[in-house]
Amino acid sequence: MAAEKEAEETVSYELHSPSELRIVLLGIISQALHSASELRMVLLGISWAGKSAAGNTILGREEFRSGSSSSAGTKECEKRTGEVSGRRVTVVDTPDLLDTARVEIERCVSLSASGPHALLLLIRVHSKEMIDSAAWKSTLKKDCKAFDKVQELFGGKALKNTMILFTRGDLLRGRTIEQYIEEAGEELQQRVEKCGNRYHVLNNKNRSDRTQVTQLLDKIDNIVKGSGGCYLPNEIYQEVEERIRRKEQELNEKHKEELNRKEEEMKQKYEEEQRRREEEMKQKYEEEQRRREEEMMEKLRKQMKEEELEKKPKKSKLPVTNCNELPHNSKFDLNNLFETQISAGSILSFGSYKYSCTQS
């Protein structure tokens, strides 16, 4: 019965070499979950070995694209987590071990390294009619190379945590898995022996049979007991830790560069603001100086004008009578005119001569 669906994660890495794959596969099962009821497993093998379908069978629901929905096979490492028989189970599906050059990166997730409890090498069962055919021999040869690749990538210690998981158990058709191994020949038998004769069969066509899954989990428990825990050799752990350390150092350096850049920007802005304020103050000071000078000049001009006006002689305010303006051929008494003008305090003017007359 499918349990309540938990949070999903899709993890993908660009893999260009087996050494990179070794680091990625150990880093991808990486959430440090120390609960005794939690199991982590990595599905390894060639394309069309049934890795994605096996992952779906183990988790009891469609989590990985498989069959017709994934015509090109798995191209990126993907991790899914779910609850199986009351236990937290993490399953990682991987690309073809023999064809990592085609893997294209889509999204990388940095996780802490804790290591898988089991490395499951998937080998597809073939029908009895396919035995000894050219296609079967070619596939079996690739399966054996994939087994050798696991040992090459993870070292001999990895075999303590390795189990062969046969898929398409429905194609046994009355045969036991032991009979199939015997029919397959010496190459496969040697690989089974190398991993301590640990193997299991899944029938992906019958996902409702949860007994096959619980039996698989029990066998993984035995692997953990026999190996003393999850698989994570010291040299790999140190390599992963070194990668993490370098990544942290890189991030710290980037952070430091960013801080220095921001500090420099703030410094430049402060200096620009200071220069702007100084320029504004200088302009205001110069404008104030010009204004004061203009006021002083204007005041000085007014003062000089007033002084100049004070220095000029004052004109007489007495009325002037011009004798030339007297009517010609007129008879008048000159003495009376003098008396009149003198009594009035006027100035009597005859031609170009002026006489000031005042009364005594």
TrEMBL record:
Keywords: GTP-binding, Nucleotide-binding. Residues 36-241 form the AIG1-type G domain. Residues 255-311 have a biased composition (Basic and acidic residues). One of its GO terms (molecular function) is GTP binding. Pfam families: AIG1. Residues 255-329 are annotated as: Disordered. The keyword Nucleotide-binding applies. InterPro entries: G_AIG1, GIMA/IAN/Toc, P-loop_NTPase. The keyword Manganese does not apply. SUPFAM superfamilies: P-loop containing nucleoside triphosphate hydrolases (SSF52540). Belongs to the TRAFAC class TrmE-Era-EngA-EngB-Septin-like GTPase superfamily. AIG1/Toc34/Toc159-like paraseptin GTPase family. IAN subfamily. This is GTPase IMAP family member 4. It comes from Acipenser ruthenus (Sterlet sturgeon). The lineage of its organism: Eukaryota, Metazoa, Chordata, Craniata, Vertebrata.
